[in-house]
Please model this.
Amino acid sequence: MTDIGRLMLTDGEQRSLDEEGFVILHDILRREQVDAIVERIQRMAETSERDYSREAVVEPEMIKVLDLINGGEVFDVGYTHPRVLAAAKYVLGGDMKFHSMGSRSATPGYGRQALHLDFHRDLGQTHPAGCNTLWTLVDFCRHNGGTRLVPGSHRSGQNPREVLDDPEADVTGEVRLEAPAGSVVVFGGHTWHGGAQNLSDDMRWTLLTAFCKRDHAQDPPVAEIIDDDVRERLSDESRELLDL
Ligand SMILES: O=C(O)CCC(=O)C(=O)O
Model:
């Protein structure tokens, strides 16, 4: 990672990634960006047909929208924000490209997931093959399904689905994501985490953007799906990140 990239993260943020396996970055999105992103996700969910065959775990009650790279300019920040990119690159050890961007938003009463890893490859190694970033589009708290995260689990070299009797149950040391709208939690692919039930009466809106090592496959390959107008507005840096 370059010195400039490193400077984007404080020592405390780097330590959090090293020791906890995740970091919460605050004030990444402005209020109007949050509102515009939510509006767009909502509109796309209403107007596009959902392809369940592409969902690793089918959750019909949740709002899921994929391939937000083509969703409009409001999503460009998902793969251009310098602090988020710096954190993901730090996790991946400097070798990075864009993997995918979508939304998994919890409707009232839903959202609980088993603890899991987002990227199994390279388990046991310092740098996972992938890194996810979860963007809070409402204030996240325990009540509305703040994500479950297990600090230090990335160093266990273990997959929670293989070692826990019940990965859906709470585990010792688990914390819940509490962060105002416009924050981003960056977590490595080996960090045990999972969605939690939204007990509130409101939607828990989320954007997820994942990155991976350059020798890992994107989901789906961006070159195969990207719309011409998006391709045309990309900087050279973004084109490289998207592997175009
Ligand atoms: O929705 C959340 O809080 C977590 C989502 C997640 O872990 C996933 O989709 O892999």
